[in-house]
Amino acid sequence: MTNPYLPYEATIIERIQESPNLFTLRLCFTDPKLQSDYCFEPGQFNMLYLYGVGEIPISIVSDPKDEHIIDHTIRAVGRVTNAMSNLKPGARIGIRGPYGRGWPILEAEQRDVVVVTGGLGCAPVVSVINYMSHRRERFGKLNIVQGVKHSNDFIWRDRYDHWRELPDTKVLLAADDGEPIWPWHVGRVTDLFDQLEFNKDHVIVMLCGPEGMMRVVIKHMLEQGVAAKDIWLSMERNMQCAVGHCGHCQFGAKFICKDGPVFCYEDVKSLLGQRGF
Amino acid sequence: MTNKNSKVEFLPRSHFQELIEHLQQAGYTCVGPQVHEHAIHYAELAHADFLPQGMSEEQSPGQYRLHEAGHDRYFAWANGPQALKPLLFTPREALWQSSNNCEDNASLCFKELIPEQRPLAVIGARACDLAALYIHDKHFLQHGYRDPYYLARRKNMLLIAVNCTHPADTCFCASTGDGPRATYGYDLLLNELDDGFIIESHSEKGVAIQTQLNLQAAEASQLEQANDAVEQAAARQTRGLPAQNLSQPLLDNLHHPHWEEVAQRCLSCGNCTAVCPTCFCHSELDEPVLDGSHSVHYRQWDSCFCQKHSYIHGMTIRDTAGLRYRQWMTHKLGSWHEQFGRSGCVGCGRCITWCPVGIDITEEAKVICSGDQHD
Amino acid sequence: MATDKNIKPKVAVHKFSSCDGCQLAFLNMGENLLTLSTLVDITHFAEAGPVDEDTPVEIAFIEGSLASPDDLERIKHIRSNSRFVVSIGACATSGGVQALRNMANTKDWIAAVYASPEYIHSLDCSTPISDHIKVDLELWGCPVSSWQMLQAVRSLLFGAKPEVLNDKVCQECKRQQHVCVLVAKGEPCMGPVTRTGCGAICPAMGRACYSCYGPAEMVNPESLNQRFLGLGLLSSEASRRFLFINSGAPEFHKQGLKCKPASSDDGNLDG
Asked: Do C83 and C212 fall into the same domain?
């Protein structure tokens, strides 16, 4: 029996500074067999362990078909992530996973897709956007909407530029506060929604970001006639064990780590936005 | 409920030590109730003389007092603060160790620290604790990932239940359907009478022990006496929870003013979650040695009444005592049903007795679920 | 504070108004003190020998409260010389037992105690370090625990901010499987409002916690005070549970004053 709590050693292949407090660690299991056996779905996460400091849950942003590396984009905000941001290529780290349920990729096939992200919460969806962009023919119209507080928070411009070139794909960007040369919308993401192109009866909506923003988008989508079962969102809570045992991430009856982090709106709507849950 | 090979027999109290000796000979370390720090406490039991013979106790919200009751019984008391939970889901345990002084100094080595598997025979488990054990078995072993630490202890545990004849004022297992009679989850079952015990088995392991004992046939009058005592124990309970799934009534009353009223009294100390036999929350932490050569990764009991329980980069989801109490109760009595197919409360009453300010879950649930906004 | 392995980070241990007990927590570390000396370079630690308040350091541990006009200048100097400031012990984190005088008239008692009061230069109040400078980490306790200080140093050496313990003593007490002394014996235990980190040593000995580690997060002193009255404590006795080693901690100060009788036994705060 494998021990679900035990990490395995991985090596940092590359470290990319994405923005002042956002960095990507490109990892590879030291044991080649572990690396070749490793597979995940976009939206799932790993527990990363910094020696002597602790573990944190981080979503996987690389493509599942990439056999050689596992990418994690991390925001340096807490005790572990701040210390982790000092690691350099060649350093070792502990990793266990993948955990949780990812995005409904199979359900999304042949349908239009709307991906809306806000704040710095785009990392959990980058993997699924990449996934769809590499298999573009399997999906209908693709809409990618990203909102940020300040235009400086917007990272991965080249990726967005690349996605914009894909057939039948719309990329819409909004910043609450834009620098003078910000070429995109200044205001809320919802201001852009009349530009979206999708069939409301044949769409999957994927959301990631602050819960307040996700609720606003959900309200809008429901008003547009999108069914609750077609709206999916990635949620975040304190996660320590990642296997549904430690109890921190409970959201009503759901364990975010095990039953999520990606949920169908239908399954979480009763408590979403309820303070204290 | 009884194993097909089992007989219902009588064990005189003067022969109780033989049961302990047979268990020890079969390789078990016995654990049983003893008086410790002014309460009934489960610990390694070397001899029947250490059982709390003649002891009884009084419990009320926020108060527990043990006293000599002047009888000969071993089990004439209601549960103390703990029973089975700490034996299986230990308060603090090392999960694994990492070190960076392997051959090559840059690398990280991980070593799991699975506990040594020592067969334990627990004497005196009550129905409420067996019900809680059933929930923990599901949580740690059956819902997706299996916990190897819990499993190592669990698979070597023999359980000798005792039907409860002395419920405390804070007990309400009859209302939750979990007691006072033990109906599942044990290997051997005892009913205590004035001069001894009715004994029966519920598993092959139990039969194997029972057949070695020098027992007398149980008489019909003895069985009747035992049965009456348990029935009276149920009838004596005055507290209760509604025997229904409270998920909806609780969800309908998330903004009931009574949450705030409880928060005025609640200390957010987490004593309720520590003594609750079904609470399973735990945190993980790393403890490196000073020279940095290795670090041990622990887990330890945590509580939804602690700030860090709901902390997420820069934000505490439950930043008031009212929200923490609401999380605890809506989980225990509400969302638990969806997770485990039953309530998370087994009616042991510990959270009432051991709350330093005597907050009573049965009373608070009644007010909140009634929906009546005027306390 | 990830550092080159060959350059040892510099550490200073400073003392202000205090009994030196927290510095002893360093000296009592035994073998760990030797290990520590291989990991860091202790530049200033008057009680142990080295005296050099001027060399800039990575970590400054500060014991004691600020109680004299000179202290106020010295603490600013230390802040500007230190990258990470850790205040250790009740004096440095809440003003200490000497903060009891904050509730009395300083002039009067100086005159009552000293033959030549003109030589005494005390501020009216004994205050914690964080009232005057930015403190990066507070380790509470009277005295602070060696274990906590070592964990803090180790964490900083790993480049991580030390973990702050803010749960109640009850959490640690129950993890150690002690029976609650308040519930089982009616002892006026301060555990439910007190910060963990001590290892629940008083309840482990069957006695009530007297809150030498100060307030935990989200405390409810009013409710605990009510419980103490219910156990038969007089209002003045209950108030002394709060106005003791950490009387300067705002949560305790407020509660203690609320139930402290206005006149009779003022100044008789002997806990």
From this structure: no
